[in-house]
Amino acid sequence: MRLIICDNYQEMSKAAAKLVSSQLTVKPDSVLGLATGSTPVGMYNILAEMCKNGDVDFSEAKSFNLDEYYPISSDNSQSYHYFMQENLFSKINIKPENTHILNGMCKDTDAECKSFEKMISESGGIDLQILGIGQNGHIGFNEPDANLNPNTHLTDLTENTISANSRFFDNIDEVPKQAITMGIGTILKAKKIVLLASGAEKHKVVKQLLEGKITTDIPASMLKVHSDTVLICDRAAYSSERIGVDIGGTDIKFGILNDKNELIHKESIPTIASDEQTLISQIANKCKELMQAYSINGIGVGTPGLIEKGRVTASNLPFKGTFLAKELERLTGISVRVANDANCAALGESTAGAGRNSRNIVMITIGTGIGGGIIINNKLYEGKGSAGEIGHIIVEKGGIQCPCGQRGCWERYSSASALVDMAKKRAEEHKDSVLYSLYKENGKMNGKIFFEAVNRNCPDAKTVLDEYIERLADGINSIANIFEPDMIILSGGITNAGDSLLTPLSKKVNVTVHIAQLKNDAGIIGAAMLQ
Ligand code: PGA
User: Which burial class, exposed, middle or buried, applies to 367 when counting CB atoms under 10 A from its CB (0-12, 13-18, 19+)?
Assistant: First the structure.
């Protein structure tokens, strides 16, 4: 089986359309085997456009469709008769009498199947057969079954196929339970076969097909015995390696995640934030370089700031309503998704860090402020774009002024900066304390110095810690009451204090609290997981 990997769905569709048009140039009266489903739609659109422009001619071509639901009438909008009319036949110059689709309302399916086989052989056999592949490995409606039927036949659809195809119907009960389909033998008799696969949901089956043995469990694997089959797939179907990008004010981190969600490569470059275009090109160029070395199916980007309807605005970067994902997609040619960096870090921790065995987590990042990320059922909850601004829950009406404009935000009391401010104040008020002497010795106060005083059993430091923990626990308990997560994960420099923070905190909260494990890698892993 030959393999052609295209950057995206559009490129896959173009490559397939080119094969069809070349076939018709060489043999204008070719017999085409056609497929339905989402995958060939792009190819049909291109062929329709080419036909309109006189670049391909179907006037002498004949076609046989792979399959049809049973029972279904040809005027039902879910029938493959209807599909072919809508997506191709009405847009090209093929003669209606030269198109053949199994009759979903026939009384005698056996007779219908036999006559279809007869018509194919009388037309000289199929020259070029187009196929899609089901997530369960089916081709046509040849479902995984130890007894694959070689000829055109009536078959029961599997649960997997009924569920995959239910997206086209109003509800799953409307999906017919049977279909008539060309058999594996009918398909293998085609002189040339083009198998198309697109999208991440096809990655698993494409991998099984390429790496596995010929087996009736994956009917498409039978195509491996055919001497002229080409698999054309896009990167999303072929590969599950993804690039994760974490944009920071000083550097941009890049990582590559494989299909087991392992970080197989990472590097970083200094951020050039002179203007929007320079920064975007810098990211795109590094991604393109990585795309040469790895088989990448998509890019995920974590950025500071707010994301609204695809527009990124970040105060420390030249993004002012920038369509970041769209711009990067244009430059790299592959799918790009963008999310807030704190949200990406939460997704990273939930995938490969402290939350890897949990479905629902809230990550709280404690730094200058407090940020958060919410993961529900292993998926990032983004709201309208940047959900998780938990640092701005008001915990004290009319309390300390916050730069956000409100008063009494939680981060004014429970961020690392708030802790440092409280420690400084207490030290100044108790000049005989260990806390004060460490403050003076170091010429500054920070989390590390504060926790050193705690560990030296300084009663003043302990009083500050008790007060701080009280506030932190109140906020955590409120969040736990809303989400009831499997765990809360804390991140940020302050978590370096480890048990000095966690032990007293755990006594005051009604939820399991863990410290983040991935440190700097959480952002790139989470960004890659957006794909
Ligand atoms: P799809 O179906 O193109 O809609 O994914 C392919 C198939 O089931 O053969």
Answer: middle
Distance, CA 344 to ligand 1 centroid (Å)? 32
pTM here is 0.67
Which pLDDT score is estimated for 316?
81
Q: What average pLDDT score do residues 110-133 get? A: 98
- Stretch 76-97: mean pLDDT: 97
pLDDT of amino acid 306: 87
Task: Give me ligand 1 centre to Cα 313, in Å.
Answer: 39
Cα 169 to ligand 1 centroid, rounded to whole Å: 14
CA nearest ligand 1 atom 2, residue = 37
H-type helices in 107-189, by residue range? 109-122, 159-165, 184-188
Helix (H), strand (E) counts: the chain:
18, 23
Question: Interior CA angle at 242 toward 238 and 243, to 5°?
Answer: 145
| 3-state SS assignment for residue 313 | strand
Cα dist from 55 to 18, 232, 431, whole Å? 10, 22, 88
Ligand 1 atom 7: residue of nearest CA: 134
Ligand 1 pocket residue status of 37, Cβ below 6 Å: yes
- Which atom of ligand 1 lies at the shortest distance from residue 133's CA? 9
Question: Nearest CA to 185 among 162, 219, 208?
Answer: 219
Instruction: Please indicate whether residue 278, judged by its CB atom, sits closer than 6 Å to ligand 1.
Output: no
Two structure tokens written together for 161:
């196929």
Longest dimension (CA), the chain: 103
